[in-house]
Amino acid sequence: MLRIVTGGYPNEKIEMYAKEIRSLLEEGREVLCVIPDQFSFEFDKKLYEELGARAFNRVEVKSFLRLSEEILSHSPQNGGSLMRSEEKIPIIYLTLKEVRRQKSLKALSRFLDKPAFIAEIGTTLESLIRSETTVEQLYQVAERIEGTAGDKLFDIAVIYEEYQKKLSERGLRDESSIISAGAVSAEISETFSNKYIYIDRFNNFSQDELSMIRQMLSDSVEVSVSVTLPVGEKRTPTSVYTQSFETIDSLIEISKSLDKPYRFAACTSKPVKQKGITD
User: Fold this and answer.
1) CA–CA dist 152, 120 (Å, integer)
2) Element (H, E) at 81
3) How confident is the model at residue 275 (pLDDT cuts 50, 70, 90)?
4) DSSP state of 238
5) Range from 74-83, 221-230, 255-264 carrying the lowest mean pLDDT
6) What pLDDT, on the 0 to 100 scale, is given for residue 82?
């Protein structure tokens, strides 16, 4: 079951969740909260105040990254050692050196020796990995684009392919892939089986985070996702909440693909009178 929670201020949502979590714990249920790292202290503090020490210590609170690291640490098939941050630049350098030797680039050859290009291509590689874009997809798109843009995209595909080869040869995994790898391992280990999951404080989700949510929704009892959207907000072309509506679309699409039901819930400061109900 997917529950999309709209409305309310952050602390009001935590209060709402805390009441539900307390009841779940009393029933012997397992609860996992997924929060961005930058909000974990604030969330933990508020949840602790609401639940008390004993109940709070029975709740898992992690970011997508920390959760993935834990899943992979218990996985016998973790896809290679996680590459340390200080190893990434040398691997990129070796990648560009090999690409230069192959003389296969169409448009980016003159940039390979520029220090700034290493940082730029590093950021590009991270985006490609987190979006779960494959080398084949890049080549296919490059073929359909004419001119310099197509040539540059082709070159990026060449570099991306060689970078993956370099990692594979060394038994390494880019840290950008850890959430995707965690989602795969979670399926094998049934990490989320029988759990109630609360996802809060995210403005949107990257593709690898959506893959993890997909696995959560597939195995857990219920996944509650907070979306920044006032209760009753209408969708319009000029809405400042366009990103929130798009996030909801992505979540519903996942739910439908898994044949899982979904519903909306409102967190409001004042009780909302339901239609058809009179005083």
Assistant:
1) 13
2) strand 81-82
3) very low
4) T
5) 74-83
6) 74
| Cβ within 8 Å of residue 154, ≥6 positions away | 106, 107, 138, 139, 142, 143
Helical ranges in the chain per DSSP H: 10-26, 40-51, 53-56, 64-73, 85-102, 115-130, 135-144, 147-169, 178-189, 207-219, 242-257
- Condensed to tens digits (0 to 9), the pLDDT of residues 171-196 reads 888 888 889 989 999 988 889 999 99
Query: Which residues, in sequence order, are CB contacts of 57 under 8 Å at separation 6+?
Result: none
Cα–Cα distance for residue pair 104/231, rounded to 1 Å: 54
How high is the pLDDT of residue 278?
Answer: 43
Spatial neighbors of 89 by CB under 8 A, at least 6 apart, are 118, 122
Eight-class DSSP state of 60:
E
Please give the residue that has the higher pLDDT: either 273 or 261.
261
Amino acid code (one letter) for 85: S
* pTM: predicted TM-score of the whole model, two decimal places: 0.80
CA distance 48 to 63: 17
State the Cα–Cα distance between residues 117 and 45, nearest whole angstrom. 42
Find out whether 45 and 16 touch, Cβ atoms under 8 Å: no
